[in-house]
Amino acid sequence: MSKIAIKNLAGKEVETLEVDDRIFNVERNDALVHQVFTVLMGNLRSAIAHTKDRSERAGTGKKPWKQKGTGRARAGSVRSPLWRKGGVTHGPTKDRNFYREVSQKMRQKAVMIALSEKLRTGKLVVTDTLAVADKKTKSFDAALDALAINPRKVVVSLMGAEQSEGRAMRNVPTVTLVHNPDLNVLHLVKNEYVLMSKAALMEIDTRFKSWKK
Hints:
Structural class: alpha/beta
Shape: elongated
Low-confidence stretches: none
Strand content: 15-25%
Number of domains: 2
Distance between the termini: 18 Å
CATH superfamily of the largest domain: Ribosomal protein L4/L1
Largest sheet: 6 strands, mixed
Strand order of the largest sheet: 2-1-3-6-4-5
Helix content: 25-40%
Order of helices and strands: EEHHHEHEEHEH
């Protein structure tokens, strides 16, 4: 069983908690983490670039001049891609779809690998509570200093009952807030530290307990 120190917001260790090795001591697998990360990043993309093809360009449908006898090249439409202000051939369109699917087991395994790596490198910080006494951003920023996290990028994983505490955290520029069940590989890879309460850690342990390799 792996062990993790539980601290208070003053940075003092208050207890040591044993966690399941099947969840928090998973062997590193960069290929799987990368695959899940790229799929999730792609799913966030939206097609912005758009070029008009010949059917979308303005212009008459009349043939510019007769087929033969003028001495000029044949032309059938002023909207031809060969003409100025004509349609674009094979250009990017807003109809592109970047969405891909990845299995639930792969997503869960990637989260466990990333959490295990954070624990091994000492970048998974667990506190007895995330409740800031006066609910001030300044006080939470001081807590980050006490936990030796500032000024690093940190994702704070909040349980449902802890959502109100986010008001004291959301104005810190290096902090990303996430609902604990929604914690995924994007949050874990893009942020150097993970901060959560003991309750959130136990919720992850319970949720992934039934996962089988």
